[in-house]
Amino acid sequence: MGSLGIMIGTWLAGFLTLAILSFLYKDNPFYKLAEHVYVGVSAGYWLIYVAFFDVEPMLVETFMTETGLERWILLVPAALGVIMLSRWFPKIAWLSRWPIAFTVGVGAGLGITANIQGYVVPQLQATLLPMTGFNLVSLNNLVLVVGVVTTILYFYFSKPHKGVLGWAAKVGIVFIMISFGASFGYTLMARISLLIGRLYFLFSDLLHVID
Amino acid sequence: MKRTVPLIITFLTGTFLVVSFFVPHSPFGELEQRLLIWFAIVAGFTMLLGVDSLIRAHVRKVARAQGGWGHSAALLVGLVATVVVGILGRVQYGSPFHIQSPFMFIYTYTIVPLQATMFALLAFFIASASYRAFRARNWVATLLLVSAVIVMLGRIPIGAAISPFFPWAQEWIMEFPQLAAKRGIQIGAALGAVSMSLRIILGIERSYLS
Predict the structure, then answer these.
(1) How far does the CA of residue A133 sit from the closest CA of chain B (Å)?
(2) Which end of chain B is more exposed for a tag (fewer CB within 10 A), N or C?
């Protein structure tokens, strides 16, 4: 990419950045233009990504290079993919339920194994912490264990929140509120960091006001 | 054919993936990998449906010259240009993601700034929403407010300049109470996802067929 290309790209990026930021004043045609360009370009990007990073290497190239059963078995996902497009024809649109059922089945199968292996077991393992003696480490571990247990109990609605469960749920809400507040602060700071990045781009790359 | 076959397909694929997780012997692992590749291929085709729907909606708007048709035209131009440039990049450089490819120009100078600015814009809306919502009406709302302020102050230099308490407190909040509640919520959500997956595999949950 030559320097002219970089210059055009920088001005284009600058215009789009300002068009989006103009929404802070009020909804306006420049914002709407940038918003629509964003949707169109993103859809095109993901279409190309899926075509050349997904379907081409996994289906087309493998079909060309493999032999025997390894090659012909690929007709199954190809057929399922083509059947998915039957939604374009109302009379046979019901056929698209087959590939949908396949993807839902894979999703559900992974939903069980991946959630247990990736979330439940590791999170429980990480929560089983030692509490040896009266010290800061044990106190922090106690906070963590009590927080996890009471948060889970807060979301247990099969019994009314009375008695011990009621007290546990009350402790749980304390942890949940602290967590939501912390997550909010963390997210806001991340967004402000992005904003600083965009302002730096405008004043540095586009306007050369700062180095 | 319309309902039974999809239910059988879902049951077989879902059950196979669960069984293959517990049987670490050939050919289960290999077949599991194959199913995942098939899943990616089939999911890839669904992209065509989505883009087709988007194009139809906006072409209709342009053809009927409805309000905002110019914006729809810009969307279509952006989409077509990106796809054409992507294909050109594939033909010319072997991959649209080659550093010299014009497709990367669109990515660098259009998608990246638009995405970053969109998310940056949210900072203002989150801040204004919090101004309305963060009222210390009761002690639990106060907890939310205090924890948010400590985390925000603790993550910027001025927080440390005011007091070393802020960086220390924000780290402690993130490491213990925040992590505890997040972990509890994650465990609950994961168990919910497992039960929902079981309902789908067993054919109790069928809303995806409607």
Answers:
(1) 19
(2) C
Distance from C-alpha of B9 to C-alpha of B15, rounded to nearest angstrom: 10
- Find the CB nearest B82 among A44, A187, A194: A44
Torsion A180-A181-A184-A186 (CA) sign: negative
Task: Say yes or no: B76 contacts chain A, CB-CB below 8 A.
Answer: yes
The two tokens of residue B45 are: 């085709």
Nearest Cα to Cα of residue A100 among B203, B7, B202:
B7
Rounded CA-CA distance B112/B124 in Å is 20
| CA dist., res. B18 & res. B59, Å (int) | 44
Helices A29-50 and B28-63 pack at an angle, to 10 degrees, of: 150
What's the start-to-end Cα distance of chain B, in Å? 14
Q: Residue A1's pLDDT is what?
A: 64
Q: pLDDT tens digits, residue range A98-133?
A: 999 999 999 999 999 999 999 999 999 999 998 888
Structure tokens at B100: 């010299």
Nearest to B185 by CA among A167, A177, A176: A176
ipTM at complex level: 0.88
**What integer best gives the mean pLDDT of chain B?**
93
User: Can you give the length of chain A in residues?
Assistant: 211
pLDDT at B30 over 90: no
Q: Cα-flanking dihedrals φ and ψ of residue A157, to 5°?
A: -105, 10
Measured between CA atoms, the residue of chain A closest to residue B11 is: A105
Token digits of residue A163: 């008695």
Chain B residues in contact with A187 by the CB 8 A cut-off are 126
Q: For B108-139, what is each residue's pLDDT tens digit?
A: 999 999 999 999 998 898 888 888 777 777 88
Confirm if A178 and B143 have CB atoms less than 8 A apart. yes
